[in-house]
Amino acid sequence: MRQEDLLIRKCIFPIDKEKIEAFLSPGLNWAYIFNESLKQNVAPLLYYNLLEAKSIREKIPRDIWEKFERTYYSIAAYNTCLLEELQKVLKSLLESGIEVIVLKGMALVERVYPVLALRPMADIDLLVHEEDMPEVEARLDELGYENLTRGPEDFIKKIGGNFIVDIDIHSEILNITRVPSRRKSHRVNLERLWKNSQDTEIAGVEARILSPEDFLIDLCLHLVVHHGFEKLIWSADIFYVSNHYREVFDWNKFVKDALEYKVGKAGYYTLYYVKEILGAEVPVNVIKMLTPSKQNGLERRLFNLILSGQSIEQSRFLFTLSMIEGFGDQLKLLREIVLPRPSLLRARYDIPPLRSTYPYYLLHFTKSSFLAFKALRKVIA
Known about the structure:
Layout: H1 3-11, H2 17-23, H3 30-39, H4 43-50, H5 54-57, H6 62-95, E1 101-103, H7 104-111, E2 124-127, H8 133-142, E3 146-147, E4 154-159, E5 163-170, H9 190-196, E6 198-202, E7 205-209, H10 212-226, H11 232-244, H12 251-260, H13 264-276, H14 284-290, H15 297-307, H16 315-323, H17 327-338, H18 342-349, H19 358-380
Parallel strand pairs: 2-5
Antiparallel strand pairs: 1-2, 3-4, 4-5, 6-7
Helix pairs in contact: 1-3, 3-6, 4-6, 10-11, 10-12, 10-13, 10-16, 11-13, 13-14
């Protein structure tokens, strides 16, 4: 891992100035540091944590520091708009008697991260009861949201200019509309999740969030199954959640539930990574209890590459495959990836309604096969 990547990982958390200063070298490529931190969605965290470290900041070229600053304030503005829109949505659902759990980004921004601008978001994730989905869709329609064809839970709204609000309405902990077999990667008890959820206030409105232990389970699945360690921000989420709840977090409950929900492997990979690479305070016995009894060579090789700082395209599907028990269910997952439903294919490639999907199936199969071969070759090499 290059020096700049190591510095990024050291600066996404509150820093020890003396240690960071000792780590700096005259040849550091600050343009690379900014671009890579932007790509990993952690540029605001670097800006925030370096803001008070004047002796370090003076070593950063002014034009690069100004880019960090602009990024920080643009995300602050964007997140403020998202919060204002979420407030309207939550009020409407609350008035209709619909229970809502706010997931991931918005829950992190409101309850975990110290400042609004630190957690970039692409969308808003909300969990509702499946039987409430028709009413939720009706309320969102009243608020001007459009139900996208690529999934019944995906709604967007354009607000002036190019500002778009994207809301994902979940009835399960993982998005399964595009790849239903993801459901087989875990056995999370939704009824227990709802029972353990906690009352809070989000965007000034009554709402619910997951319990600390369930919050971490959700983020482990999100990092490993949904994204395959693709961006550093999702690992930072784990660090900040475990740190924020450190006084009340029940590690024994987390391990018990993770194993019962068949999320032990995702928990192991997540916590091992944040402990070894990011320095999170995770009890050693927790990682030991979550250590998988079965790991094939491909799986170990993939995880070792991620630990070394390499990015592996399609790694989320490789991890998901490893978490699904049963060859038949694994084949079903591969089929859903390579041969998606026509409605999903039309949305992905923006196919006009009257045009045949058959040529696009050939295109999608070719692209998927190429990406899979490329990923496997990198892992095996």
